[in-house]
Amino acid sequence: xxxxxxxxxxxxxxxAPSRIGAAAVTFFALAATAPLAVLTxxxxxxYARGGGPLIPLTFxxxxxxxxxxxxxxxxxxxxxxxxxxxxxxxxxGLGRPxxxxxxxxxxxxxxxxxxxxxxxxxxxxxxLLHSWFHVEAAWWMVAGVCWLLVTLLSTVRVEIASGLxxxxxxxxxxxxxxxxxxxxxxxxxxxxxxDSILPSSAVDRPALGLLLAVGVLAFIGFETTGTYxxxxxxxxxxxxxxxxxxxxxxxxxxxxxxxSFSVGAGPGEITALARARGSELVFDLAAAxxxxxxxxxxxxxxxxxxxxxxxxxxNAMSRYLYAMxxxxxxxxxxxxxxxxTHVPRTAALTLSAVxxxxxxxxxxxxxxxxxxLAHRLGVIGGLGILVVLxxxxxxxxxxxxxxxxxxxxxxxxxxxxxxTVALGTLGYLAFWNIPSLLGVPADSALVWxxxxxFVAVGALGLIHGAALRGRRPVQYAxxxxxxxxxxxxxxxPTVARTIPQQREPGAHRxxxxxx
Length: 515
Description:
Amino acid/polyamine transporter I
């Protein structure tokens, strides 16, 4: 019998149980999606490409797909309420090597997203620092301050972190709702137009495919709910509830606020205005209707929301490392938690060190304007998580039907298979439109190097699984079990039994054998 805790019983290797509820987990997930950053960067870019009234409808369509996925996700959370989340679910449905591959891909993708947000924060802070202090701070200075805040806050109690993120997310929701209300109360031309929500011409299929890809990437972060399972009051239920809530709230927020942009600018002017102003579109529309202090408050909340997203992603990654360390897929040091706060401090500080090295490398490489690099890192990270979501949906379909445990036909079969097909379609559209998503020519090296990088990370995970199986079979058997002790029964050696040679028929009665 083997388990991580049994090897070193004196070490603290558990997260704090029953510390947070479904609402807190929902705020963690919403913070990870950085909703205000999506509204200021992703939505204007979609309008600039001529998305028009299809943009709000796209968010609604993607939300339907993700609600189907949330059904399968909640069922897997109920079966395996562990901090490993999708790493655990894929291990149970597709096998331990595939689970390790999914875990490594999830960590790498979240890290790319976090690094991209560091770059966006440097750009978002520039107007504030210029207007307040008349200084031009380099992006890496702002990123360094954000890194210090994230490092410190990642080691506090989870309930304190959830309270802080709740305040920041509520501030983001308030700013977005305020800006949207101002646009709707003072529409362009003095009246609401049906053209702002209904397409006035035939839908361009390639453009629709690109919009669907952009839409699903805008929701990335909602799936981090499962990483807090071990810290919730009802581990088998509340992460699932939070997954539903985060998808619904994001769909309402992104759909309504993006529609208000078209209303405020005018359906006929929104495309040209988005191309000309880019991420400043949101603040330009607000400045035309609200007092200057409201616009400044919006910029402050945007920067605070970016820090919240960094912290939420950092927490999710640290819990993936904690789960893999607890199951001895990684060194058990990653499973050590602080005695007072019960947070995975070793994993969190390790991630901070990796992030610091990456930021220093970007500075030494001569990155001066991180906007383009941040955008591409965000797209790459989102595509990686989309691959993990697809693997999780397929794993849920296989595991729930291979080992049924009271789920109905909808939760066990229909929702998982529909989400698998739908996410597979969205994944195909995303990779088909990868040049447009990355903003590079079709013959750019990035177009083929990004999928190859995903395959390489997945292959490393498979190799990790094979090596673990060969060298430490007891720990390998515990992958996906949340650190539960695993009993391995040795197979007794097969003893070859000598079968006596059959006698010739009739040999005992020679007189009855016909000659």
